[in-house]
Amino acid sequence: MDSAKAFRFVVEHFCDQDPVFAEVFKSILDLGMPDISLNPVAGKLLTLLTKMTNAERVLEIGSLAGYSGVCLAKGMRDDGEFVALELNADYARVAEGFVRKVGFKGNIRYLVGPALDGLRTLKAEGKTFDLVFIDADKEHYPDYLLGSLELARAGSLIVADNALWKGRVFDPAQSSADTEGVRAFIGMLKEHPRLDSIVLPFGDGFALAFVGV
Ligand code: SAM
Asked: Ligand 1 centroid to 2 CA: how many Å?
């Protein structure tokens, strides 16, 4: 099977064609943001996972222009709370606008600044989350996973993009801080006693981790 053709087929048949996504991508171009949003199959998977887990409180780490935020919000309960951590204030403003536009009626909150600070703030507030999506800088993936675990309850789901980091995680010649961060993250997904995990080998590697007691 031609995997590129199969991917296009699935996108055409199953992925959400909401016009808000075209607006997100136009903003990325117009504002000169990097073109590093989640792929559409992973985006639809985020919506489904949020629905399947009946997630009331969702945390996103790394927003860019809001593509993944919109995917998450589309699957959320209207009495829920969506919290996003984003370093860049301009990106956060754009992303928040799109998440509001998509019709999610719950509480929406963007914390601007380093995600590690945001995670500390949420912990100090005693927050817990049903689903966390990690998609910020790769160097800190292990810290984001530990921070997410502190905000998770038994039964929460932690999801992350770029878990195979363009194949660099299994290429011994690669040793950048980002690659080492994702490698350590993969090791934790596998070994952490509270996690039962898998990495789906499509896109750039999409990790799912179920949080136990
Ligand atoms: N999840 C987004 C989507 O699919 O639409 C893409 C996120 S993009 C891959 C990574 C984002 O993480 C960027 O918006 C970047 O500004 C943000 N970021 C990078 N380092 C960060 C940090 N230390 N704290 C918070 N956000 C960070």
From this structure: 31
